[in-house]
Write a structure and sequence with these properties.
The structure holds 2 protein chains of 2 kinds. Chain A is mostly beta strands. Chain A contains no helices and 11 strands. Chain A is 0% helix and 57% strand. In chain A, strand 7 and strand 8 form a beta hairpin.
């Protein structure tokens, strides 16, 4: 089984709809992240969480919200989807127990299309 | 100015050649540097990390870091068609948030 899973893998929705993307991990990592990827723009950080009670905005948080339901679960919501939120969304996890490394491991991605 | 810069490519090399991928960064206090490989439609996977000046080798991959020049590179020796992918450079900031900042990636094609 994959260590980091994302659901759904693909989603097509309409402008104005509320959408939730879910991420679960079995790696036991304390840190979780949400990124979006657009062609030619690389990965951009939306939100990150260092533990259940610590949630932080990233570079492009406007229009998004998150919930860290448990150490293993981190959800991303689009309250009212708009077409320019069409992108590939990745969840990632990392473990800072080993100081100085904090390598991030990515889930398989969710391809979201907003019509 | 983008914080992490990579040549977008595409970069094409013949099979068996050395592929050289370059990355510059703006945050002089950055301490951790990563190279991820991403196949089309797939998630990024870590191939190398480097934290100290100099070279770090792992199989056919060598990462090179020069903090004075704010430059990190990835060399792929004996390139194979299976190395064809987009390579993402990522830099961990020196700020309290310690976030990863990604470059936009270099698309590499290894020609048989």
């Amino acid at each position: 089984d994959a260590d980091v899973t994302q659901t759904p893998r693909n989603r097509i929705t309409k402008t104005g709809k509320r959408i939730m993307l879910e991420c679960s991990q079995t790696k036991g990592h304390d840190r979780m992240y949400w990124y979006r990827q657009d062609p030619g723009l690389g990965l951009r950080l939306i939100y990150y969480s260092f533990d259940v009670k610590d949630i932080n905005k990233g570079e492009i948080s406007d229009g998004y919200s998150v919930s860290r339901q448990a150490q293993a679960k981190f959800s991303l919501s689009l309250e009212s989807a708009i077409p320019n939120q069409t992108a590939l969304y990745f969840c990632a996890t990392s473990d800072f127990k080993t100081v100085g490394t904090d390598t991030q491991y990515f889930g398989p991605g969710t391809r979201l299309t907003v019509l | 100015q983008k914080e992490v810069e990579q040549n977008s490519g595409p970069l094409s090399v013949p099979e068996g050649a050395i592929a050289s991928l370059n990355c510059t960064y703006s945050d002089r206090g950055s301490q951790s540097f990563f190279w991820y490989r991403q196949y089309s439609g797939k998630s990024p996977e870590l191939i190398m990390s480097i934290y100290s000046n100099g070279d770090k080798e792992d199989g056919r991959f060598t990462a090179q870091l020069n903090k004075a020049s704010q430059y990190v590179s990835l060399l792929i020796r004996d390139s194979q068609p299976s190395d064809s992918a987009t390579y993402l450079c990522a830099v961990k900031s020196s700020g309290s948030a310690r976030q990863l900042t990604f470059g936009s990636g270099t698309q590499l094609t290894v020609l048989p």
